Input
Amino acid sequence: MGTGTLYGVGVGPGDPELITLKACRLLRECPVIAYPATKKGGKSYAHEIVEMHIKADEKVMLGLVFPMTRDPELLASGWNRTAELCWNELKQGRDVAFVTEGDPNLYSTFIHLARLMQELHPGVPIVSIPGISSVLGAAAALQQPLADGDQRVGIIPATEDRAALEEALLHHDTVVFLKVAKVLDLLLDVLDELGLAGKASVVTKVTSPNETVWRDARELRGQELEYLSLMVVSK
Output
């Protein structure tokens, strides 16, 4: 009996219909569905999307709790434990589909899982199935092209590094800042200084039933946003 294949399956940004035919087929064929879970056993965003396409009671639903810490020892221990849970299924010849919002190769948990699996169990076949990113979902929600002709686009994690935020804005025609909730006011300050405050829009939980769009990001100063929020700045 051979080793099962680990699939990273992108299930899109939120709308259950924004998932590829190939992803749907694999989710139905794979006996094991792995998904990010909370410590309390709560469902992840990706899990909620997948439930629309499979019969969960016919699958092994493998909830993986990923370590949320900067302690290197706890981080390594948590990740190793997560990889071994997948390996326990793979070594029995069962394919595992790890589902992730958006695309598995763009700021995804799957990237770290795949690297660790290659390191610990190099014989495991690993395949990624592309998905629609929240970046593209936001462009559709805003009815706003991301780029045309020779324009440049930056996809940037929003951090507290003010210089990095400024550099991204100065060197791109359009910038998509991901996960902006924690640094929203800082971003607005930088936009003000660069004269771009009126060029920014924010979308939360894009394409999902709970999607919210603010075409003028300045309305959000001082407010708390959902974790799954992004900002599009178009010059």
In short: The first strand starts at residue 6 and ends at 10. The radius of gyration is 19 Å. The chain has a mean pLDDT of 93. The chain has two domains: 6-129, 134-234.
